[in-house]
From TrEMBL:
This is Glucose-1-phosphate adenylyltransferase. Keywords: Glycogen biosynthesis, Nucleotidyltransferase, Transferase. The lineage of its organism: Bacteria, Bacillati, Actinomycetota, Actinomycetes, Geodermatophilales. PANTHER family: GLUCOSE-1-PHOSPHATE ADENYLYLTRANSFERASE, GLUCOSE-1-PHOSPHATE ADENYLYLTRANSFERASE-RELATED. Residues 9-259 form the Nucleotidyl transferase domain. SUPFAM superfamilies: Nucleotide-diphospho-sugar transferases, Trimeric LpxA-like enzymes. It holds the Pfam family Hexapep_GlmU. Belongs to the bacterial/plant glucose-1-phosphate adenylyltransferase family. GO terms for molecular function: glucose-1-phosphate adenylyltransferase activity. Residues 290-360 form the Glucose-1-phosphate adenylyltransferase/Bifunctional protein GlmU-like C-terminal hexapeptide domain. GO terms for biological process: glycogen biosynthetic process.
Amino acid sequence: MALPRVLVLVLAGGAGGRLQLLTETRAKPAVPFAGVYRLIDFPLSNCEHSHIADVWVSIQQHPTSLAEHLANGRPWDLDRTTGGLMTLPPFQGTERGGWSTGTANSLWRQADLVRAFGADALVVVSADAIYELDYREVAEAHLESGAEVTMVTTEVAPDDASRYGIVEVDGDRVTGYAYKPDEPATTTATNEVFVFSPEPTLDRLEQLRSELGEEGLEDLGSHLLPAQTQDGLARAYPLGGFWRDVGTVDSYWRTHQEFLTPEPPIDLDAPEWPIHTRGGRRSAARVLDDGRIENSLLSGGTRVSGDVRGSVISPGVVVEAGATVVDSVLLPGVRVRSGATVTRAVVDDGVDVGRGCTVGGGDGDVALLGRRVQVPEGTEIAAGARYPDPDED
């Protein structure tokens, strides 16, 4: 019996505004994670290990930051003569051309391509979460259920539930759905992985578009998922393992801290499910002079002569003698000069933290330093601060 034909659509076009300075010059899925990875590596690795070779990536914001990393899909075995990786930029020339204004709007714009492909199941995923999942397994369960949509779900903290689409479930049937509700009925959230039956879903989108207009389609959770739920055609598929949305600066920092524990929630090098990325050529990391590393991730090409504790050190980072980095995430090419202290901070690509600077500190909010800034010698940047301050001209 032939396997169902599965198409994965990765929605990678969002602005990622909640990540603030980290997405000023890069797409959200291109944001680095755990030293050597990018956020989009997780759904693409899931596709590889799910044996799904037809993967489309819808791009919009800062597309060049993703194009180089995707490398025609080779790191995930998606560089195929037939099928494989295809990027979908904004386009003009048809009635569906233009700038996407939400995830449902984006799906509507690609509807003709999806119909022509003829998939049995369409898996639509975002690219701002850390998790492992067999998409084919979910797609097969969806096809057996007879549903129009299957929503992969996870449990979230009660004080965080209003950030997500929240479902009420009876067995595997979704009986209620609310998109980012002010007062969530449950803590069972969709984790932005959906399996759709393509034809009925796209037909429904056409009907919604005729009622609401193109911009009125908004996100999948705005009108499409509630309508499918109301008609009794939505099913839930609980995700049993680890899942974290890293779409805010605080969640991005906290998730890194989880990967510094003695037993991290995901083994990124697990032989049965390794997370793959576009590898760069870097020399071995070097700990020099009196350099000290404690409970940290140390990437290739780094040079540490100072004190690093509880931190993630990305490729090409230099921590000079006499510098201290604690509970922080340093992205590629950062230099922390002698006498500087960086505590509880996320420091973006190529930042030069000058001698004697103090960044962040204490148990306060996470400090964030924007890409390629030069921090003058002796500067003090408070806990929770943004540097440069986006509110200043």
